[in-house]
Amino acid sequence: MSNYLLTPTPAEEALKFLANKKALSRSAFERLLPELRARAICISGVQSLETVRRVLDRIKELPAGGDWQEIKKGITRDVSPFLVDPFASNEERAEQVKHAEARAELLIRTHGFQSYQAVSYASLDENRDVFPAWKYLTAGDDRVRPEHVALNGLILPCNSPFWSDHFPPWNWGCRCSVVGVSADELTKAKARDSKRLPEEALVVEGARLRKLEENGTLLRAMPGETMPQIFDCRAPRATMKEGAYYWNPADLRLSLDMLRDQYASAPDVFAMFEEFAKSTDAGGVTVWQWLNGETIPTKTTISIAEDPKTQKPEKTKAPAAVEKISTVGLPHTLAASVRSSLRVVDSTLAFPKLPELPVLATHETSTLGAFAWNHIEVSVLGSHPELTMSHEFGHLIDHEFFGKGFHGLGTRQNHEELAPLMETIKNSGCVRGIKNLIGRKFVLTTKLDSGGSFKSTKETDNKHARYLVTDEELFARAFAQYMASKSGDFQLVAQVEALRAGKLYGLSQWSQKQFAPIKEEFDKLFAAKGWLKP
């Protein structure tokens, strides 16, 4: 491990570099010009910008003297809800946890190490007259990749284009470094090379230098090896792979005007980027404003006639579900259904906090919806997407407000606040009817609208019946029907009644008479929590 990362070292310039980074969504990050990506951070697989910002804040603790292991643990906790599936087998989950830990370490190494190397580059860049050549050094352990090992100890001119895409960290997890070489040291190094074979020389010049600069190939005899080898030392970007890692600390000094000049031969590319940057939010400012160094304007809320001393603080507005649950990327019709369901929630309940979660579209027919802790799924093939979304939102409430532990569900843990409600649900005729089916085969008939446009009949066993009477499913289905009953929303009410037309699915939802005491318990629960809107 590099000495930079072995010991927490306060570094004001490194901290400044991280402070200027911006948390962006994956789609926004990928639309940045490559020269600008080092100024931002996104995390693959993590859809919550709030989580990405929290991870960045933790990485900032490193140059401020933070403890490496504690920072890693915190980041692992942050990203695990998006990378670890609580429903996976023990073996799969153990592997997913390892992956989350590895991702945390990679994030620290990449962005934390970038901050130190940006400072290192700036120092070397300002002292090119003192150090006419730079030496490449690896971390020196068995974790260094072969193409990085091949570069270890090599000395190249400081103005070589090689450094534009090989200044560390030039690939994911790279821990290498660069040091300056004075004119006197360079002379001595060349004298030592005169006693070596060309492929053993450490000072790279002439045809050997041109090949390394032009196509990334290097002929080198490695210590302990009898024959020299040709190494492919191309930077990831040179492989032409989409989304390849790119890092050039010199780009950090480019203004947008300088970047426009760089793209003079491809004005359409820069024009498309400018249009995107001026229309995309980056946390209160557009991407364009952020890159120009503009800050979020301060809003004044006190009028001249008001005395600040007598003003009462504004009551914090509860987050609206329709604002916190993202429908970006969904087909238009499904997005409209999801937002419609969320607006019903917002018209009925107000929660003190809600996580930022995306809704993803699936094409499942057997499972029309799912709640996976880091996202919600709704099938585009479902006949009742509004009710499905209400159902999955019920799982979200169960987890977010009543569950204990990292992946806890209150219904699974017999949360005491849910006890009266769950007892009423379990004692209903609807649930008793489903339990009567357990232990025998039966014919399952589903008819989801009065016109008969969706109807299926098949023989099945009791597996699905057992699933329907699990506590978490009972709560979610009851919550969905509560939303329909409480709001009177036409679509939700119609979808509940349509579901009741099938034999098994009819038992999965309650009649109005059966549901009345359940609705009353929901009212009591939400009123006690202070969530029920008047």
Description:
There is one protein chain. With 534 residues, the chain is of the alpha/beta class. Helices cover 47% and strands 10% of the residues. The protein has helices at 3-6, 12-19, 26-30, 49-60, 68-83, 90-126, 146-149, 163-166, 183-193, 206-215, 256-262, 267-279, 287-291, 321-324, 332-348, 385-402, 419-426, 429-437, 463-468, 471-487, 490-499, 503-508, 512-529, and strands spanning 22-23, 40-41, 133-137, 155-157, 177-181, 217-220, 229-232, 325-326, 357-362, 369-371, 376-379, 442-447, 455-460. The strands form five sheets. It has a four-stranded mixed beta sheet. Strands 4-3-5 form a three-stranded antiparallel beta sheet. A two-stranded parallel ribbon has the order 1-2. Helix 3 (26-30) links the parallel strand 1 and strand 2 (40-41). Helix 20 crosses helix 21 and helix 20 crosses helix 23. The longest helix is centred in the N-terminal third of the chain and has 37 residues, at 90-126. It is elongated. The two termini are 59 Å apart. Residues 1-10, 296-316 and 446-458 have low confidence and may be disordered.
What is the compact description of this entry?
By secondary structure, the chain is an alpha/beta fold.
Distance between the first and last residues' Cα: 59 Å
Would you tell me the structural class of the helices and strands? alpha/beta
For the largest beta sheet, what order do the strands appear in spatially?
Answer: 8-9-11-10
Major sheet: size, sense and barrel closure?
4 strands, mixed
Strand content: 5-15%
Question: Helicity, in percent?
Answer: 40-55%
Shape: elongated
- Cα-atom Rg, whole angstroms? 30 Å
Uncertain spans: 1-10, 296-316, 446-458
Mean pLDDT: 83
Helix count from the secondary structure assignment: 23
